[in-house]
């Protein structure tokens, strides 16, 4: 039996379904989680369907999570979307359900759950939710689900610019735009930035460092973030910027946290960087990963390793 049918069988079996996603969510985390919830509510009005996790103000235009009591988990089906490993699941009560399903598109290095559906070829987990619906004739999309899933796909593909975008991704996006929501508005909204972020973007372009091997980086410490009146979550819009510069193969933004440690946002146009991310307590996709450092003394050694990776890359030149 295909995995999609196994998942649907579990969905039919349970009256209570609780959907989780990862910490520090992005549009795909919200889109896949809340898009799936919207599908299930519309197709199974007799079921109780909840979406849980931290409420992120910047994504409240998509949907808002719900606060639920612990006892709802006792007889529940729990589905975790867009979350590669268990420590990253937002709201650790996800283990308290009767059955657990993982749906994800990251490398499957932590295959948790009673059912585990991972498709690393998918552009996003939101794309996978559409595939799930399309595979099951008994359920249909709705306008609201299509809006959420489209936003998730657009967010994770960088408006269809990233390498993970495939012909199938574009077909799925086209299918979603047939529903009644304003796709152009979502595109514009995801491309817009607040004035403090615009000023940070100017700082990034003015102060980024670029090595001879095509490795770019910038360090955003707490004093700088305070100056721009921004927090870590607000740096997401500037992550793609250095990749727009001709000659950049891969790049890293180091964002200092309150405790003095650093969060690394690592991106690449070709060199595989997720193995390096693992060395620093992180991981992710081959061309888009994250990692952590206890302090800035580790940055020079990290950049040397990234330089070596870029130098060894024999793919398309970024000129």
Textual characterization of the structure:
- It is a single chain.
- The mean pLDDT is 95.
- The protein is of the alpha/beta class and 319 residues long.
- Helix 2 (27-43) runs parallel beside helix 3 and helix 3 (125-135) runs antiparallel to helix 4.
- Strand 1 (16-20), helix 2 (27-43) and strand 2 (48-51) form a beta-alpha-beta unit.
- The strands form two sheets. The protein has a six-stranded mixed β-sheet. A five-stranded parallel β-sheet has the order 2-1-3-4-5, covered by helices on one side.
- It is 35% helix and 17% strand.
- The protein is globular.
- The chain folds into two domains: 3-191, inorganic pyrophosphatase (n-terminal core) (Alpha-Beta Complex), CATH 3.90.1640.10; 195-312, Roll (Diaminopimelate Epimerase, Chain A, domain 1), CATH 3.10.310.30.
List the helices and strands and how they pair.
Blueprint lengths: L2 H11 L2 E5 L6 H17 L4 E4 L24 E6 L17 E6 L10 E4 L6 H11 L7 H14 L10 H10 L6 H9 L3 H13 L1 E2 L4 E6 L1 H6 L22 E7 L5 E7 L5 H6 L3 E2 L3 E6 L5 H14 L7
Parallel strand pairs: 1-2, 1-3, 3-4, 4-5, 7-8
Antiparallel strand pairs: 6-7, 8-9, 9-11, 10-11
What keyword list fits this structure?
319 residues; alpha/beta; inorganic pyrophosphatase (n-terminal core); Diaminopimelate Epimerase, Chain A, domain 1; 2 domains; 6-stranded mixed beta sheet; 5-stranded parallel beta sheet; 11 strands
């Amino acid at each position: 039996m295909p995995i999609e049918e196994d998942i649907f069988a579990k969905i039919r079996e349970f009256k209570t379904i609780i959907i989780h996603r990862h910490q520090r969510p992005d549009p795909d985390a919200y889109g896949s989680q809340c898009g799936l919830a919207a599908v299930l509510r519309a197709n199974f009005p007799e079921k109780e369907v909840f979406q849980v996790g931290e409420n992120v103000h910047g994504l409240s235009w998509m949907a808002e999570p719900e606060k639920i009591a612990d006892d709802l988990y006792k007889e529940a089906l729990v589905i975790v979307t867009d979350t590669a490993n268990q420590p990253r699941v937002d709201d650790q009560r996800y283990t308290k359900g009767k059955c657990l399903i993982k749906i994800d598109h990251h490398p499957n290095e932590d295959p948790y759950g009673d059912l585990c559906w991972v498709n690393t070829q998918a552009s996003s987990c939101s794309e996978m939710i559409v595939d799930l619906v399309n595979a099951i004739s008994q359920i249909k999309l709705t306008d609201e689900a299509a809006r959420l899933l489209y936003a998730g796909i657009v967010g994770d593909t960088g408006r269809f610019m990233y390498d993970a975008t495939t012909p199938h991704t574009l077909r799925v996006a086209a299918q979603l735009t047939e529903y009644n929501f304003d796709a152009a508005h979502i595109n514009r909204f995801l491309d817009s930035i607040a004035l403090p972020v615009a000023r940070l973007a100017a700082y990034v372009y003015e102060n980024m460092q670029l090595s001879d091997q095509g490795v770019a980086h910038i360090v955003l410490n707490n004093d700088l973030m305070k100056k721009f009146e921004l927090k870590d979550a607000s740096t997401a819009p500037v992550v793609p910027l250095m990749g727009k510069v001709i000659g950049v193969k891969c790049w890293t933004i180091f964002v200092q946290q309150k405790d003095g440690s650093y969060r690394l946002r690592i991106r690449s146009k070709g060199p595989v960087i997720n193995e390096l991310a693992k060395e620093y307590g992180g991981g992710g996709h081959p061309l888009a990963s994250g990692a952590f450092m206890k302090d800035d003394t580790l940055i020079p050694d990290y950049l040397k390793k990234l330089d070596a990776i870029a130098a060894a890359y024999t793919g398309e030149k970024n000129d």
